[in-house]
Amino acid sequence: MTGTIIASGKISGQGLRVGALGAATLALALSSSTAVFAEDAKFDPNASITIGSLYEPQNLDNTAGAGQGINEAFNGNVYEALFTLTDAGDVQPGLVAEQSVSEDGLAYTFKLRSGVTFHSGDPLTAADVKYSIERVTSEQSKSSRKKSLATISAIETPDDQTVVVKLSARSISLPYNLSYVWIVNDAAKDLNAGEDGTGPYRLDEWRRGSSLALTRNDKYWGTAPTNGEVVFQYFTDATALNNALLTGAVDIITSVQSPDSIAQFKDNPDFTVTAGQSTTKELLAFNDRVAPFDNVKVRKAIARAIDDKKLLTSIWGEYGTLIGSFVPPTDPWYVDLTAVDAYDVESAKALLKEAGFADGFSFKLDTPNYDPHPIVAQFIQSELAKVNIKVEINVITANEWYTKVYKAHDFQATLQEHVNHRDIVFYGNPDFYWGYNNPKVVDLIKASEAAANTNEQTAKLKEANTIIAEDAASNWLYLYPQIVVSSSAVSGYPVNGLNSQFFAYGIKKSEQ
Amino acid sequence: MLLRLLPGDPANALLSVGADAAQIEKAREQVGSNLPLWQQFLRFAGSLARFDLGTSFVSGKPVIEEIAARLTVTVPLALMGFVLAILIAVPLGILSAVKADRWYGGLISTVSQLGIAIPVFWVGILLVTVFAVTFRLFPSGGFPRRGWQNEGQVLYALALPVMTIGLVMGASLLRYVRSATQDVLGSDYLRTARALGASFPEALIRHGIRNGAVPIVSILGIELATTLLGAVVVERVFALPGLGSMLLLAIEQRDYPNVQGVLFISTLLVLLIGFAADLTQRLIDPRLRERAVGGNA
Predict the structure, then answer these.
(1) A25 pLDDT exceeds 50?
(2) Best interface-test mutation with A: which of B61, B73, B140 has the largest number of A CBs within 10 A?
(3) What value of ipTM does the predicted structure carry?
(4) What are phi and psi of B174, to 5 degrees?
């Protein structure tokens, strides 16, 4: 098995995002978020919370190409999984009451919670769990998680409350990967436009192009939500979304994508701006297979010639984080590698000379046509001009990126944002679009998945991470901030939005 | 047909970046994009005959259902904007033509010129800034989720979009009304009517409006038809789930059943509007009726 190479992200109006998923991260909300958690005694238990978002799902089934929007609206709210990835980044039992793992790590036994029912009234049984997992791994499934579950060889249901998952190889990330598998009723029909989950909310109405309304499930097995209903209101235009918050038409914006719009909320007591930790990395990816990028020195020289800090500031102002590798600080295997190939034009020139490019060279940079890539491309062009490298910017659409770069590997260098955490495993796949191939890294990443415990996994991935950075496999420009803006009347929402999730059940709205 | 020649397969839009070849083939089979083009077209034509617009590749919902939902936004929006435009354009257009020598006649035509020059989205943003953000009189966008079950809310939500369309359409319409009125003012029949003793307003209303209305009605037909799909800019600014934004999204996603469905329905609407405009013209002008019957005018 070549590691678990999985991607999430969709070709959609919002552009294309690439990512992978992985195990627990410990997320740190920045200090400004403390206000969000402040206890508010006088909240309205039946409040209607309106959440403004730019990510409308295409349909309601995450195995049918629904896009990231469905995870935002449904994960943890309408559907639950055997395990839950919390906003803080750890994996906790969800519908699983007890679990045990066999000595060889090849059989996981899960005891289900009792007394759990679907919204339709059917009780949750082991057969539903088996059906739900197989729905994701089936041939028809368009789920991006499919490959991560490829090690599952069999699912047994010895009784109604017990599920045994058999693996063909050790997979330390299984609980994490199962946190994406919605448990659906095996008798449910039409999950494209309807639902039958176990979550704290049931679907009220989906008005395509406009809104998706969830209403509280009064028969929920767990802690009842602190609000009565949640309405996701969808926008295609960020300005219209900001105006909606300004005028009180929405209570929360899940993810602000432009720093310019933050100013109007920041110094206004009516609003709360929260900067959490995203896992989205802006990347200058080389095609490591082709000259001159098959030369480590050239890649390192380019990394040194670009002033990442200046770039980040010009795009995100005071927000965002610099990273020295593909791993964000919230991953357990984070190592601060910002000092590796730090900005240093003179040493970049020296490296290029060593590599035989004293007079520079020119290359074509395939640039997706949506923000922030065109701006980043221009910045890189001017930075690299200083070391005599000529960048030819080639603007392409998301669809072209997918066919030309991602599938055909027909490119020299490209820009892309990779959204999910633990996607370091991409570097363990020599067939991935950037073609990085270091046998040591491939082995380390493969071994990390077969690790007996998370400490071993972390140690292996830390080592791999360091090698990848030293090899300048790609140029990691910066880490996006995750910014949530809300009316100051609401609190208790997730701030990190890991893997696009937005748990709504803890949101409180004060009585006015 | 031409749509399918665009690069990109609808199956790609369904799948994420991690999809393998088998997943792609499966998706192509599902949406039918693996078939030769002519077969895809025959399929489409066949189901059209049964008035079945098919099922969206992306959402899995019947196309006709979604179009119906979208029409409950677009049709009222376009019609109300249209009525507002007429209410603005007709009185002001006539006034500016009749009183072209007064200061306000000049002012009206200058302002209308400005209205034509300003892009629609900018008018929308301006109205949002003033009426929604600053004065909090109207919502800045969105459509009530229960739709027409609550008419008051819908009207409230559509207030600014209708104003936007009404103002922009009204400005260009005003120019036509003005020049049509000017033609009428210089006409022989008006002079004759005056000579026969009719007062100026009487002559204008009895003879002028009827004559001037004929070209205006055909312009109105075109404007209304354009607004049905052209409202997409307004829909975007105000986050309204209308027909135009459905078409835009469907094209982005290569969701051909939706694209074809929207084009089919909007073509149908445009033809209907054209027909209605023709009928109206004949109602207004008896000469057109005779010509149609006699056929040798």
Answers:
(1) no
(2) B140
(3) 0.76
(4) -55, -40
